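Re: folding output
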Amino acid sequence: MSAKELRAPVTLAPGEVVELWVRATGPGAVLRVERGGATVYEVPQPATHVEFHRFATDGGEVEVVWTPELLEVSFAYSYRPAEALAEGITLWEFEKDGVKQLAGKELAEALRAEPGRPQLHFSAPRQWMNDPNGLCWIDGRWHLFYQFHPGSVEWGPMHWGHAVSDDLVAWTHLPVFLHPQHDLPRLGASGGAFSGCAFECPDGKTRFCHTERLPCYAMDDFREVQRVVESSDLLVAAGGRTVLEQRPAAAGMDFRDPRVWWHAPAGAYRMVLGGAIAGGPAVLLYGSTDLASWEYLGPLWRADPKWQAEGAAAAECPDFFELDGRWVLLASMYKHADPKTGRRNPILAVVGEFKDDVFTPAPGRPPQVLDFGSDFYAMQSCAGAGRRIAFGWLHNWTSTAAAPDARHRGEQSWPRELSWDGHGQLRMAPARELDDAAKVGRSRIKLNGDKGELPDAPFEFRVRNIRDGMTTFSATAGGAAAFRVEAGCEDRGSPTRASIILPGGDECHGQARGTGELRIIYDRGIIEVFAAGGSCCGTRRIHPERPPDRFELNVASGQGELWRLEPAAP
């Protein structure tokens, strides 16, 4: 007996493009598009692996025909190329009774209403997301590209997802920007379009550079090359070419995550790459005059041997930029585990001088651990609107199983503004849009004593002027401990210390010189702590979340405030 075919009417605009990732779950699966009974697109025998399909029609009324019991549609959307940057995609949901289409405000509201999805933090509309990529500011808008697997909520063959925002709060989802070079699902391999960057060239064009991991069948045996791509419409990557294949003799297999810029003093391009030399985490420096031929200029930075001794295999996702006259190198320490706490994969910031292709770290200043939590990784930044904005991927390294009904997995941090504190340390503060009532609705929750109820919504606890003593914010869920944050200093002049404490002895701690404002942002399982005005930051992603409903607090000094946060209506 043949499987039942379901028909769903859909109206398409002229030239509207439809993109789908599908796989057959049994023999006899059907997927086709008809107009007036005539087939205009068909996949007569859908593959049993996830397969990408793309089609466009002249528009009008069509019928989508498929076999729901034998076909899995993991991700599907349509878009009008000429309007996509403004309108975004229309998400297609293949349901038992038809195809549901969501776009614009309706899509934003539907995603926000999904249980477990954070409200203020960016997430992909569906499936797996990890590292931020290609962060850039173009024509007054922020573009966020990201590592994306459209086939599942688990990590898999890498693509680049894409979204754009006018204000870092409301994001318009755009078509998948970059696909793997090879049909990896068909090959039964992993790999694809790994992390990279956007960069502006002297001709004013924005180009992109990324790592392509070639088809990989064993996670301890792979090959990575660097590619440059262009895009005339900022919707689809084109003109890709491999520009760097050979890694240095002493480098290991980890050879990825390019950060490219036009370096005016040299009159040439420079690229930093993450990797290792002789097994020790390192960042490699390359130069080019034409983006096609690259010369290895040597290691830009090599980590202290202690990092290798503690398990770090490579320096991933390097970022290298000048901020107010000082150069900053960021490196994510891949596979590192702290021998005392078990905390994994920190991000280091090294401050110094970059001259004549030599980076000299500032003497007497060890690398700064940027976030004392365990769930902030692969940070990338860009300059725009007179400031430097950064995102990090919020990944829980200790509880990694996806919920059985998860429709998305992975979020980006709240955007952070980078600056210097008074002690020469890099400071990260929540992007100022969080305080803009036109972008994020803020309603103050009156504090009656030291206990109270928490809203079923994102919230922020804030102390504006901590002078001394420790402030504690404790949240409970159904009477049981959910999390606790402690921050402050023993007395004036001593360092600020901050901690995030979860049930079962799961704790992380950090400290920084100086005092100042404390901010705790909570958003459906995401905890972001900014102590000492952003000099001491910590992030945790609780998975699965137990929604906190009550709080207790002790404010040692200054004035405590509790705010309900709500994104402005899209």
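--- second protein (sequence, then structure) ---
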Amino acid sequence: MFVHGEAGVGKTRLVRDVCDEAAAGGVAVLWGRCVRFGAVDSPYSPLISALEGWAESTEPDELTGVLDAVPAAGGLLSSVGGYASDSAVRLLSVVDGLVMAIASRRPTVLVIDDVQWADLASRDALAYLVAGFRRQRLAILTTYRDEELGTGHPMHSWLADLRRLPSVTDVRLDRLTWDETEQQLTMLLGGRPHHHLVDDVVRRSDGNPYLSELLLEGVTITAEQLPADLPAELTGALLAAWHRLSAPAREVMRVLAVAGRPTSIDDLREVAAARGIGPAALTTALAEATDSGISVAQGSDLCWFRHPLLAEVLYATFVPGEAETVHAAWAKTLESRSGTGPDEVQRRADLALHYEGARDLESCLEASLRAAELANGIRAWREEAVHLRRSARLWSTVHRGDTERVDEEVDLLERVARANDLVGDGEAGFAAWSRALELVDERTDPLRASRLVRHLARSAIATNRITRLPIAEARHAVELSQAFPDSEEYAEALAVLSWRLAWNGELELSIRYAEDAVQAAHRSGSTAALSFAYAARGIADVRAERSDRDTAEALRSVRMTSDPDLIWLTLVARQNCLLQRGRVTECVEMEMEFLSFALKAGALSMVAFAAGMLAGYLLMFGRLSESGEVIREGLSLAGLPNASAMVRLTAASLSVRRGDPDAAGLHLQRAKELIPDLEESTGLAAQSFLAEYLLATGRPDQALDLLSRTMAAQSVDIRDADDILVWGARAAGDLVESARDRRDSEGVRIAQTQFDDLARMRQGRLPLPFEVIAPEDLIQPAMEALCTAETARCMAETPTSGVWEEAVRRCDAAGLRWDEALASWRWAEALLAEGATRAVVAVPLRSAHRFAVEAGAIPLRHQVETLAGLGKIRLDEPSAPSHAQPPAPFRSLTKREQEVLSLLVAGRTYAEIAKALFISEKTVSTHVSNLLHKTGTSSRREVAALAIRLGQSPTNVPGHHT
């Protein structure tokens, strides 16, 4: 097998891991490495080194046996006192004899690493071993570097000859994708890295795993990007091949490095000519660099470095000021070109880069602004944000002291802030909002100041700079704009203040400001302001009937604006209204629709939060697989801290339910890094996710403490408080059961008292727990039934099967499949404890098992199967009737007798059959007697065995369910 790819792609690492596993299973591994010796010829060096390594590590008895089988071996291996003979023919026969002798004793793997540097004799020996395969247990693995095989390399014909043989296979390793690089970094750092760090590594290593590993030198799991300077080991590794080029080729590669990206031969030729390098010299230099594996052709017209990092390293070889003339030459060349669409955006971006490198900052600013404008036109939002950031950075230098252009700079900064907020770069957005507000005089431009105050406060929350609600800032925004009562700014400022007051629990005041906002929005004539105002009134009066109308109207109106940010805010208001009414399925549909829209609009920061919310809804309904797909998409996207934390929380919950608590812990760790005060935060419902993880890892005491501490903070969304109450009951129930098992009566009392305190905290606030405000709400009754059942478990009440049955029924009606499955398991547990028959216990237990298997919920499946084992309950069920012609012994059976037979085959007792078919055990006995008579068998075991032999197994016997 040939394993090949570029240097650093992981060929040797892969082969080493395979061989380590093989060696652990008793396979002999002979490892030889070829070395670049230059003009020195050392025949069979890799083969001899492989045999030497084997001789030094093998057991003495095996070594003696092999040496006895190949008498001349003692003269070849220095480890046993020999020396290499000058006879190539003799060496080949000895090498072959040793390899065969080793392989005759046990399975053997011969590895030749970096075979592109092998001497001719070694390649001939390998060909001999492969082509002359006998019936020995021998595998030969070789690795080679693709980039080393330039045109005319003798390896090409050797490889072609061997690949024709039927026993030869070929494996090419490609660079890693973004996802694969993320997995590599996760293993190297001991946790999932920040997506910005993954972006940085992929951009600089281009997916080469060796370079990615070197880039991480000194980097920790908390880093969001790589250090600016490259590690010395990486720089040396990249420059090694470049130093072997001729002087003209080295200079051409430096000129190419200044280009900054793959470039056309025509452009490179023009720039090189400006540096005194003619066309012929350029062609020779490129050919040399390509044959050396330094540069590669991309398509028919472009050339670039095989490892993009080499461009960074070569650029660093310029002394200060030296690269300016090269940048100027590139700028001059690119100015003479033109393009359309993305190509023109890229050309303008390249021009800005080269103008800046050439110290022509005015031209750089002009090119950056034009690139941003073009990027916006083709909806390339990330590119627009990058070009706008550069423009803002240059503006203060190019127009320093020009007070007449301050308004233009503020306009630019607002564009910068909005663009970066859109793509999830909250830090850049906050910096732009801050600088814009610094430049605005509140006295001369109060409306702009009002807008900036609002946006800066929101940005401060999004970047986790403040955790309090910025109510004072909202009031200030209203004060600044109140002199303009018909303005859009005044309407939106009132709406923001109303929203903030509602989240602070000041509902009466919030409703008053919301009414004022709606009136002001109507006066302004602004669709955006009116949508925002209706959404604010829907939030302020969320439990009133008009909230449904207001939020629906807000969402209908805002869709006409195509503003992702405003649509998202309105969507949040609408979902809050629907959640209060138990209409979660509508929320799922809306989130799915918004995700599609936001992705197309490039609103990545909102996509991340929406993905987290949608994944949470899907988890509620037990749709674990779909939730996983949404979470994966959310994790891959940039997002503001709260958005990324939302995705991480749902990822932790999914990991817990799938039986991977370690992954859940890593997700929660990352969420806490994003939101340090995660436990106390509002709006993310983090407490429930944290409690679920603590319960799954056997820490119900910590879960109950956490929920008790944070209940008081849930004044914003009372549904979150209800959720905390349910999880508190679960945690207390686990604590009580554990204490009872230990005969710890004091522990039981403490847990029950702590839960009583938690319940009183919730009861002391209005509305009452699980209040239903809309007749269509089936969620709250289900949650109340779960809380009642968990409370009964906590208080050690008996019997509890009735309350668990009610919880199952309520969850089924609400579509809460996850909670229904958990409650079914608890119901079966209660039934078993109360002495119910196996047939009765089996009904909820099999239901929970079906769901656990279908959803991949490993812990739940284990709990169900454990309980089934304790109760000696079979989890397989009778299947639906088969319409196939039954075998002869069963053709005279009645439908009822066929159903009884099915259940006998499934191993059911008479009592279980009676329960399943709603008949008496006496009737079952009669049917069994008829079965025995008609089939000529003497016992129920015999008739069941006959049915199985004739293909009437539980999977195809009438009445059996799988």
